[in-house]
Amino acid sequence: MKKVVLVTGANSGIGLALCERLLSQDAQLQLCLACRNMQRAEAARQALLVSHPQAQVTLLHLDVGNMRSVLRAAEEFKQKYNRLDYLYLNAGIMPNPRVDHKAFYKGLFSSNVVHMFATGEGLLTQEDKVTPNGLQEVFATNLFGHFLLVRELEPLLCQMDHNSLVIWTSSSNARRSAFSLDDIQHQKGREPYSSSKYASDLLSLALNRHYNNRGLYSSVICPGLVMTNLTYGILPSFFWTLIMPIMWLIRIFTNTFTLSPYNGADALFWLFMQKPESLDPMAKYHSLTSGLGNNYTQPHKMDIDENMSEALYVKLLELEDTVRKKLRGEDVDIKAKN
């Protein structure tokens, strides 16, 4: 049976690099690129077909920050496919990043430089906004839209004849200190990206607890420090040009500077080669690159706990019910479910 793989955010960066690696490993798989910008998605599809002319690559219009789009895309996917083996939840945003330049220059010439670049801790804040659905944009795009997609695709993910795997692209910037169960959408804070990524770590654990007995498994990866459109948006392009030699030098001494999308996708690709039931639900699988340029994947225990993950899961189910009512035209307050 041919495997079916769905990748969100697949038109560039880590998502596109993953697709290339998947097709190189298994040219028979059915690959679906789920993207917001269909022009870029078609360009990505054509690029993949140049190197894999016989590949089965389809497109799905999906804006994970828009819940109507998520529901429409899920319905369209269910009409085309009768199974789903791998669901890569890779799309994500970091809007309007602000850098604390004083902390940056201080850290650049300190012993903390590797940790600073790898996690962005103490450096980055973002300005979030509210979507037309009434949700915080980063929360909706990085977490809730993907959660709703999983819920909608349950019939294809939960089947008796095979196990499926949901894979979240998280971050080393996912920190417990940025997340609060009293503010899961991060309306009151200034680190919505970090909050949303920590929430995805928690949610992955909860999905395993609720779905493993139905054949659905969930894992989390960290791509390391990768130079993508998201990364380049943090600082002016000329600045990255200036410090790239320093970053290549630092990579000799640390394995978290993967730098290229191909290297960053290593953990995503590695999970494709594993049996879902063999994976550790408490581990985040890190893409790593040695000083000599060799790629490998290594698990690290996440700073999460069962009680917090279950509490988040319950809140997301309640919010899902509220969002569905709002989409049906009922008068409900989404912010009250934060």
From TrEMBL:
Signal peptide: none annotated. It is an enzyme of class 1 (oxidoreductase). Pathway: Steroid biosynthesis; estrogen biosynthesis; Steroid biosynthesis; zymosterol biosynthesis; zymosterol from lanosterol: step 5/6. GO terms for cellular component: endoplasmic reticulum membrane. The chain crosses the membrane at residues 230-250. It is a single-pass membrane protein. GO terms for molecular function: 3-beta-hydroxysteroid 3-dehydrogenase (NADP+) activity; 5-alpha-androstane-3-beta,17-beta-diol dehydrogenase (NADP+) activity; estradiol 17-beta-dehydrogenase [NAD(P)+] activity. One of its GO terms (biological process) is estrogen biosynthetic process. Keywords: Endoplasmic reticulum, Glycoprotein, Lipid biosynthesis, Lipid metabolism, Membrane, NAD, NADP, Oxidoreductase, Steroid biosynthesis, Transmembrane, Transmembrane helix. It holds the Pfam family adh_short. Its EC number is 1.1.1.210, 1.1.1.270, 1.1.1.62. It is found in: Endoplasmic reticulum membrane. It catalyses: 4alpha-methyl-5alpha-cholest-7-en-3beta-ol + NADP(+) = 4alpha-methyl-5alpha-cholest-7-en-3-one + NADPH + H(+); 5alpha-cholest-8-en-3-one + NADPH + H(+) = 5alpha-cholest-8-en-3beta-ol + NADP(+); 4alpha-methyl-5alpha-cholest-8-en-3-one + NADPH + H(+) = 4alpha-methyl-5alpha-cholest-8-en-3beta-ol + NADP(+); 3-dehydro-4alpha-methylzymosterol + NADPH + H(+) = 4alpha-methylzymosterol + NADP(+). Gene3D superfamilies: NAD(P)-binding Rossmann-like Domain. Its main location: endoplasmic reticulum. Belongs to the short-chain dehydrogenases/reductases (SDR) family. ERG27 subfamily. Binds to the short form of prolactin receptor. This is 3-keto-steroid reductase/17-beta-hydroxysteroid dehydrogenase 7.
